Amino acid sequence: MTITVTNQKPAVLDALHTISCIGDYDPMPAIQQTLIDPLLEPLHPNAPVNITGAQGADLTGDIPNLLLSCLGDTLNVAGEQTVKELLGQTLINFDQGTLLPVAELFAVQAGQQNKMPAPSPRVLYTAQADVLPAARALLAGTGAESAFFASIAYTFHPDTLGFWFQSSAAFGDFKVWLSQQTQAMAGALPPATTKLLNDFTALSLKGLTESLLVRKDDADANDEHSFARVLVHMLMNYVEQQRTQASQQNTALDTGVLPFTVGELFCPRSLVLVNVEAHARATAAKITGEWNLIDQSLASPVKVVSNTSLSKLTSLPRAAARAAAMGSKQQPGQPGSRSAKVAFRKQPPSKLDLFKDITRVLRRMGKVNRSQNIFRTMKTTFLKASRRDPDDFNKPGRITSAQYMPDLHIYIDTSGSISEANYQEAVMMLIQIAKKLNINLYFNSFSHILSQEVMLRTENKSTAQIWKEFRRIPKVSGGTEYMQIWRYINTSRVRQRRLSLMVTDFDWSPPPTRQDHPKNLYYAPCSAMNWSLMVDLAKRYADSMQHIDPSIRQRLLGMIV
């Protein structure tokens, strides 16, 4: 869509809002004031802003719905393109060509303000090169809070709402102010909220962060004077008050908002409080570990929010990390410079095409110490006597060595859109590939749930024998959910080292927030399906995955040429 904007004053969006903690919870007035009204401020007061589409249709009244369409549970590719084009023309600092979703528009704006190129396969942000310098500059008073915010957002992409404090002392000042406000509201606050606020004042923020769970979902904890509503309201009011004082006294700010995603800004499920001084004095490895732990906690499907005690976001992962005495390190994504240039096949791939693609990926992954995928090589050498004629030193012997390629783990889509014929065809294809590789397979079926993992011994067995084993394995059915597989792989170092292959029809849309896509997960099309429909679904999936893995097209085995 081509959008034309006239008589609009280019805007800079401010994430600060003060949604009341009294009455029914309604974030729409705050969304209107924060996101929409700045886009509709006229350049010349005597005439309104005019926003039209390609056919001349007036889009001014559609802006709220367009923005909200990009904040749902799944990514709206068409809506994302339209809103990015709109923001590119109406904001002073916005790159409409960014791969980041509209949900991260405040991060894109902050990055453009500080002339930071958007993250991409060729532009990687790290704690060492970006977060540490930005924290030190903000602590010294020589850097902007937007640069610190953009450095964290571009490096870790947390799906949460954050607030930064210059130091633990600055956080202490907020707690004193909060206690005063709590006492003033003592008669109106429920006992549970008062207790949680008192528990909150016991936090110290001496480390890098403190993170709290405040809601199970968007519909939770929205009652009048609930802890979630009161705490966010107080934090926003305090930031607003600090801004006013800093402006009047010409001093530096010591607190601010970190609006990592738009959805969390107006209805946060979690809060992360950030100590700038601790970041400035920490090592890059410690910062990376802390934010990776936060991302891991946010991705966890189990969220338990207590009404009687503070629920810390990272408490379970920290306990697990201490018990296992190990840390997790996020690996950077693989470059994908050809992602936008690849062409899809005009005909379904043959079994040979898929075999070649799988073999290519296995070779690229390299060898491992031990696996079910054994590759034996034989070479002649004079260092060993010939078995046929051991006394003849002029005849070389043979040495057989075993090398191990990564294991192959198959995830077959058995949701409602996959028929029995599709499933059987996919299984037979995999059996023939496994026989050609002469390896055993790990296998799961999936829909919106995941079956139990099974290892199928296909080595040295006939096709009929292998098919008989497949038929014994129960199939799950229902809807389609890819992220359960991503989490299933990412929670096991053993599974991370395997070549994971998802056989699917690509009929799924990812969420609009950044997620951790497994490094060695690839996709293959289901067989016995309409190929033009399969290609359309794969293209839609690849387009909607650009903010998660820009090189996703390179992972579609058998689909591209």
Average residue-wise pLDDT:
87
Arrangement of strands in the largest sheet: 5-3-6-4-7
The main β sheet shows up as: 5 strands, mixed
What structural class should be given to the helix and strand makeup? Answer: alpha/beta
> Globular, elongated, flat, extended or rod-shaped: what is the shape?
globular
User: How far apart are the first and last residues' alpha carbons, in Å?
Assistant: 29 Å
Percentage of residues assigned to helices: 25-40%
Helix count? 19
Query: How large a portion of the residues is in β-strands, by DSSP E?
Result: 5-15%
Q: How many DSSP E strands?
A: 14
- Low-pLDDT parts are 325-340
Give an overview in words.
The protein is α/β, with parallel strands linked by helices. The chain is built from 19 helices and 14 strands. The strands form 4 sheets. Strands 5-3-6-4-7 form a 5-stranded mixed β-sheet, with helices on both faces. Strands 12-11-10-13-14 form a 5-stranded mixed β-sheet, sandwiched between helices. Strand 10 (408-413), helix 15 and strand 11 (441-446) form a beta-alpha-beta unit. Helix 5 (127-140) packs across helix 12 (284-299) and helix 14 (351-365) crosses helix 15. Residues 325-340 have low confidence and may be disordered.
Write the layout of secondary structure elements.
Blueprint lengths: L3 E3 L21 H9 L13 E3 L10 H7 L7 H14 L14 H9 L13 H14 L4 H12 L4 E5 L2 H17 L6 H10 L8 E5 L13 H23 L5 E5 L2 H5 L3 E6 H6 L2 H16 L11 E2 L2 H10 L26 H15 L7 E13 L10 E10 L2 E6 L6 H18 L3 E6 L7 E3 L6 H10 L10 H8 L2 H4 L2 E6 L16 E5 L5 H14 L17
Parallel strand pairs: 3-6, 10-11, 10-13, 13-14
Antiparallel strand pairs: 1-2, 3-5, 4-6, 4-7, 8-9, 11-12
Helix pairs in contact: 2-3, 4-6, 5-6, 5-12, 7-8, 14-15, 15-16
